[in-house]
Design a protein that fits this description.
With about 375 residues, the chain is of the alpha+beta class. The chain has two domains: about 300 residues, PPM-type phosphatase domain (Phosphatase 2c, domain 1); about 45 residues, no CATH class. It contains ten helices and 17 strands. The strands form four sheets. Strands 3, 4, 5, 6, 7, 12 and 13 form a seven-stranded antiparallel beta sheet that branches. A six-stranded antiparallel beta sheet has the order 1-2-15-14-8-9. It has a two-stranded antiparallel sheet with strand order 10-11. It is globular. About 40% of the residues are buried. One of its GO terms (molecular function) is metal ion binding. Its cofactor is Mg(2+); Mn(2+). Belongs to the PP2C family. Its EC number is 3.1.3.16. This is protein-serine/threonine phosphatase.
Length: about 375
């Protein structure tokens, strides 16, 4: 959980940008932690000659050096990989993670720096495909027509496949942590867990080898959210997607929504040092898809209003067996009342006049 300050540092490092395809907002906050160990990357073009965008978040632990290095270097390792120029982007991400990890090892070797970091990145190609590479428990989602779609899966020691690799690599899991220490099972850095010379990088107790998920952008996809576990420990994927969409619909900028989201997740006090007490970083990427920024906002606003509009039809459900329903029908006198019935399968609302029974007691009144 880490040590905490007596008061949180809520000053935010915030930025924004955009072009004809994407707009983004990004922000990070130290919060209750003694040090700030997060980093992030926001590139509308991964290289000046490229039309490929790159956004990433890195959540450091054991120091900030690994995260800072990753924020400055991971995209370069991916771009320089031979698979990138061939359009083999998933392979370029996987090889790029491992190459960056090797470079980081050389950099930290002299100082015996124990730091490590999660890494989750999204690479967006000109044909509208998102490639998300992930190692660790930071996370990326797509906000799609009000729903949250996963772009990554957390790597935890409790996961069956992760647990097997840890054991096969000579490690163990205790209290849900690798060797009783590390709460995640994949990361850049953390070289104390990568000392098996007879095993390839992807088979080490802790590996930098990422999962890569690809997703073809659809008309329903509105934005991407990338964040560290300081956010996801507090809110679910769907809660984050709803929060962001509501902010856009209300007219807030993406960078302001990032700041508001972190404030929402910040714990009111730090006695337990747990949820809401971590460093926080959020990157939100708007997928314009041929719209201007104003048109994109208006599109989300109109859809959000339609979905949020309350129905003026109040439905009272009566559940009865066919036998009871038949018995009631047989005793209906000739007086009328409106009963609203709903066919849930077809979502069609109909109104029909049926006869309402009047009790003897009501007649006497």
């Amino acid at each position: 959980m880490g040590q905490t300050l007596s008061d949180p540092i809520t000053i935010k490092d915030t930025s924004s940008g955009g072009d004809e395809k994407y707009i983004y907002g990004a922000s990070s906050m130290q919060g209750w932690r003694i040090t700030m160990e997060d980093a992030h990357t926001t590139l509308l073009k991964i290289d000046p000659e490229s039309n490929i965008a790159f956004f990433a978040v890195f959540d450091g632990h054991g120091g900030s050096n690994a995260a800072i290095f990753a924020g400055n270097s991971l995209h370069k390792s991916i771009f320089k990989n031979e698979h990138f120029s061939k359009g083999e982007y998933a392979l370029a991400i996987q090889k790029g993670f491992l190459s960056a990890d090797d470079e980081l090892r050389s950099m930290l070797k002299q100082t015996r720096d124990p730091s490590g970091c999660t890494a989750v990145c999204t690479l967006i190609t000109p044909d509208g495909t998102i490639y998300c590479g992930n190692a660790g428990d930071s996370r990326a989602i797509i906000g799609s027509d009000g729903d949250a779609l996963e772009l990554s899966h957390d790597h935890k020691p409790s996961n069956k496949l992760e647990h097997k690799r840890i054991i096969d690599g000579g490690g163990f899991v205790e209290y849900g942590r690798v060797n009783g220490n590390l709460a995640l099972s994949r990361a850049l850095g953390d070289f104390d867990f990568k000392n098996s010379d007879d095993l390839p990088p992807e088979s080490q107790v802790v590996t930098a080898f990422p999962d890569v998920i690809s997703h073809k952008i659809t008309q329903e996809d509105e934005f991407i959210v990338i964040a560290c576990d300081g956010i996801w420990d507090c809110l679910s994927n769907q809660q984050v997607a709803h929060f962001v969409r509501e902010g856009i619909a209300s007219g807030s900028t993406l960078e302001a929504i990032c700041e508001d989201l972190m404030d929402k997740c910040l714990a009111g006090e730090s006695e337990m040092g747990g949820v809401g007490c971590d460093n926080m970083t959020v990157v939100i990427v708007g997928l314009l898809q041929g719209k201007t920024k104003e048109e994109w906002v208006e599109s989300i606003k109109s859809k959000h209003v339609i979905e949020a509009k309350p129905t003026n039809i109040e439905v009272q459900q009566f559940i009865a067996s066919e036998e009871l329903e038949s018995e009631i029908s047989a005793h209906l006198p000739n007086s009328g009342a409106d009963i609203i019935s709903v066919d849930v399968q077809s979502i069609e609302v109909t109104t029909e006049i049926i006869e309402q029974p009047i009790s003897q007691e009501q007649k006497e009144q």
